[in-house]
Amino acid sequence: MKRTPPDTLALVDQLADHHCLPLEGYQQLIEDTSELAASSLAKLADQVRRPIYGNKVYLRGLIEISSICSRNCLYCGIRCGNPNAERYRLTPEEILACAEEGHALGFRTFVLQGGEDPWFIDERLEALLHTLKRRFPDCAVTLSLGERSRESYQRLYDAGADRYLLRHETADPALYAKLHPPEMSWENRMQCLRDLKDIGYQVGCGFMVGAPYQTARQLAMDLKFVEQFHPDMCGIGPFVPHHDTVFRDQPAGGAALTIKLLSILRLIHPKMLLPATTALGTIDPHGREKGILTGANVVMPNLSPVGVRRKYSLYDNKICTGDESAQCRACLEARLRTIGFETVVDRGDVAK
User: What's the CA gap between 321 and 306, in Å, rounded?
Assistant: First the structure.
């Protein structure tokens, strides 16, 4: 059994006390694969979360509005260069119907996620946001629609969008260049995140774990970026390959490392909202529950129409592609109760 060096446990305590580490400290925590290091992080992460969020887990109603994307990220199943991807686009009426169903089930946050579909110009999204806010004034609306101009972000914020999720993917420009085509810019990605925060959104960033070419040092850079950027949310999940990409034979990222990183992120920013992602549940059937136990406090059941869920195929073997929304929520609630957590139906804003 691998033993944990005493200085690793000292780093765990330092992180819990000060919520920051030098880059080398984060790298050491990542490289220490001992059970003691992981369990120490998990215990402390749970301890710092309890006074803030208790045993509450926030539900977000995910509506995947389009599998059409103008980008060609090399790892993604819906990239524009994949001729085999099944394309769809929900109409505004279909999106509103999903929200209506979700509201009746108790969801008070809707996450509109999609590829960078050029049909969704500002005017159409503004009209949709105005309608959502008018019909569901007690709900928050989160957008996850990729890179847009600062003017566009401002218009959508003014129309009622509360939050924006934009994974930074990696804090290392060199790794970003290996995972994206030349026309995509790491600098622009980071500028988008700065613009969103400056406008006033609750902002979420995030990264893949176990991505092609990724090193422990690069993951440490991601942790340092999150520490310094101080997002309201951070979504991470193991890399899962898609059969229609150049990385089809790349092994999936590790669930255990993802779960440990959730604990580290909780200790970096105790008030941050942390999802236990679908990708984590894809790699490990109990991954989402393990993520909740070790620091996460958000899950995102799928409210999209059942007939299109399999078409939003970012990676292979995605879970929850067939359940009805009510079934999916009931299943999640039952599983969370078995580990001592309860779902809540309010907006679930980040703690102040």
Answer: 7
Q: Which residues does residue 280 pair with via DSSP β-bridges, in sequence order?
A: none
290 within 8 A of 255, measured Cβ to Cβ: yes
Separation in Å, CA 121 to CA 127, 172, 184, 208: 10, 30, 20, 28
pTM across the whole model: 0.95
Q: What pLDDT score does 323 carry?
A: 61
Could you read off the pLDDT of 60-98 as tens digits, one per residue? Answer: 999 999 999 999 999 999 999 999 999 999 999 999 999
Which residue, among 144, 212, 206, has the nearest Cα to 170 in the 3D structure? 206
Provide the CA 307 distance to its chain's centre, in angstroms: 23
Residue 216 CA to residue 305 CA, distance in Å, equals 39
**Residue 35 φ/ψ region, left for φ over 0, alpha for ψ in the -120 to 50 degree band, beta for the rest:** alpha
Beta strands in the chain (DSSP E): 56-59, 61-66, 109-114, 140-144, 163-165, 202-209, 233-238, 298-299, 342-344
Domains and CATH numbers, the chain: 54-344 (3.20.20.70)
Give the C-alpha distances (Å, rounded to integers) separating 222 from 28, 77, 193, 203, 293: 14, 24, 14, 16, 22
Query: d(Cα 235, Cα 297) in Å, to the nearest integer?
Result: 11
pLDDT tens track for 95-120: 999 999 999 999 999 999 999 999 99
89 in Cβ contact with 117 (< 8 Å): yes
CA 56, CA 317: separation in Å to the nearest integer? Answer: 28
The pair of three-digit structure tokens given for residue 90, joined into one six-digit string: 């929900």
Angle between helices 23-31 and 216-229 (to 10 degrees): 130
Two tokens, residue 196: 């969103």
| Beta bridge pairs of residue 64 | 113
Cα 231 from Cα 265, distance rounded (Å): 11
Which residue(s) pair with 191 in the sheet?
none
Please, are residues 254 and 29 in contact by the beta-carbon 8 Å criterion?
A: no
Mean pLDDT of the chain: 94
First to last CA, the chain: 42
